[in-house]
Design a protein that fits this description.
The protein is of the alpha/beta class. It folds into two domains: 199 residues, 3-Layer(aba) Sandwich (Isopropylmalate Dehydrogenase); 128 residues, Isopropylmalate Dehydrogenase, CATH 3.40.718.10. Helices cover 40% and strands 19% of the residues. The strands form two sheets. A ten-stranded mixed sheet has the order 2-1-3-12-11-4-5-10-8-9, with helices on both faces. Strand 1, helix 1 and strand 2 form a beta-alpha-beta unit. 50% of the residues are buried.
Length: 361
Amino acid sequence: MTNDVSPRVLNLAWLPGDGIGREVTEAALAAMRAVAEPAGVALAVAEYPIGGAAFDATGDPFPAVTRDGVLAADAVLLGAVGGPAWDTLPPERRPERGLLRLRAALGGFANLRPVAVPDALVERSPLRPEIVRGTDMLIVRELLGGVYFGEPSFVTGDAPEREGVSTMRYQEVEIRRVAEVAFQWAERRRGRVTSIDKANVLAVSRLWRDVVSEVQRTRYPHVDLEHRYVDSAAMDLVLRPTDFDVVLTGNLFGDILSDLAATLPGSLGVLPSASVGGDGPGLFEPIHGSAPSIAGKGIANPMGTILSGALLFDDVELPELAAALRRGVGAALGQGIVPADLGGTATTDAVARAVIDHATA
């Protein structure tokens, strides 16, 4: 009689995308396999095109084969999309439109962006060490509403009298559901939510503030809630980053603030993200772009993508694998394995090998 247990199979849709996307996702998949296989978890990876590469192959930045593949997966790992090769395409054919369509198909309305400054990066931050030391925040950005999706949106008229219109629009249900995500994460962290808006000017922000306050009052009274205007919050994000625990905000403000916060550890290359909350699988990707100028040179930083793999493991309830990847990244940095974007010389492969060595030790 044997006690053999079949391994758990995790079906991943792999979307390398453009530029350095393939390099960093290949490194991340290697690290993910290295911690998963000894734990009895098999990664079944299927590759699908997205962005400019998909347009070149199919004439569509988000072809039907990719849509079908991601919807059938347990989770989606994405590299990056875009580049100057596709800048002259009409808007509906550009790589970025494929990314928006991917997000809409998956229904992930909450974008999670952890921003931390480990001790190994304190001296590499552009800010003073005493400001950034101890930074550990989670930005929860609403992803499927706001001005990026609001209608009407158009440019009309002839020069010199053209007019552009974009509409910032939120429904109460959209605000309520992303607020729930933020408060749930605050319960798992330090119990504080900072909701960021522009309620002194925008009617849509006044609704945002009202709904977030109601969610806190009726469901999470044990979680501290602070409301901030986006301009003063942006200033404090770089002056007093350790004041923040969970940051909740809309699509436009979240896009700007999360990139601003990315300066704290010194590079976009070390920061992961996840888009979750919909009926489809979660989407996991680094927050950096496709960096076509360094594609193929073997110097791209895969740490943000590896840490996105950690978020993926968290999402599918494999926290021990997530912890192993985070331990590996932290130990590699502590050992001085530093890629070019952080001022070091470590190659993509060298970083991945160091992470794997420490994660599996």
